[in-house]
Amino acid sequence: QGTLTLLTNERGGIVDDLIVTNTSEDHLYVVSNAGCADKDLAIMRGRAAELQATGGDVHLEVLDNALLALQGPSMAQVLQAGLSDDLAKLSFMNSITTTVFGVPGCRVTRCGYTGEDGVEISVPAGRAVELAERLLGVPEVWPAGLAARDSLRLEAGLCLYGSDIDETTTPAEAGLLWTLGKRRRAAMDFPGAAIIMAQVKEKPKRKRVGLTSGAGAAGPRSPPCVPVSPGTVTSGCPSPCLGKNIAMGYVETAHSRAGTTLAVEVRKKQHPALVTKMPFVPTQYYMAK
């Protein structure tokens, strides 16, 4: 079973968002953002050394693996042909270690960054190209560029690290308090806990919101002007599914209620935008019956 979790700093900011899986092999499997891998690893190594110094049985191993994402409605049909395991039994955010199209030692996790049913395949780096080419040889499989992937994750209301969340953004501001379990909230044993839990009680001054507009695409970091003070758009693009422009960003909490009309500045012109609940497009995550 896996989950999204956050590395935080002493100011309550988000150092990175990670997928952590509690495997059946008696270890935790962690996937970080590639751009944050070095700083994440430094934090983990430092904490592991602290625990080891007090007698903790903690070891950290870095895998030389590549990560391939196979996403979309045809994923299960395509991948099942290369697996002996039954994908119908694999629910969202669960994983198995298996052989994929003849490549052993792969970890297949039913998750992704698109809002669609999909998997991420951790594959030994030396055979990653082989597996990618095998998958691309299936007529239903097409390579997806960054813009296509970005439009999908934005339609699903998923944050992009470095744009929508960063070391100056707290989980409360970002709407990610669900990543903090009841035990951790009570123990307050994580960096920035005092700041984050104060925001849980008192509410943060700003919140991440979704925006829809019929105007030109709201580009990253263009300011949505609200009646009292400005906010910031952090991601934006035309939505292929909705036929309108979508964005997410931060506004003062007083202006964060769904249905609130704001103004977004696009190419030095202001256009009306509506605060909209996310995801903009319903997600298709698979849960086994």
UniProtKB/TrEMBL annotation:
GO CC list: mitochondrion
Binding site for substrate: E120
InterPro entries: GcvT/YgfZ/DmdA, GcvT/YgfZ_C, GcvT_C, GCVT_N, TrmE/GcvT-like
Domain spans labelled Aminomethyltransferase C-terminal: 231-281
Pfam family, one: GCV_T
GCVT N-terminal domain boundaries: 3-181
Domain of life: Eukaryota
Family indicated by similarity: Belongs to the GcvT family.
Subunit and interaction comment: The glycine cleavage system is composed of four proteins: P, T, L and H.
Alphabetical list of PANTHER family matching this protein: AMINOMETHYLTRANSFERASE (PTHR43757), AMINOMETHYLTRANSFERASE, MITOCHONDRIAL (PTHR43757:SF16)
Record-given protein name: Aminomethyltransferase, mitochondrial
Origin organism lineage: Eukaryota, Metazoa, Chordata, Craniata, Vertebrata
Gene: Amt
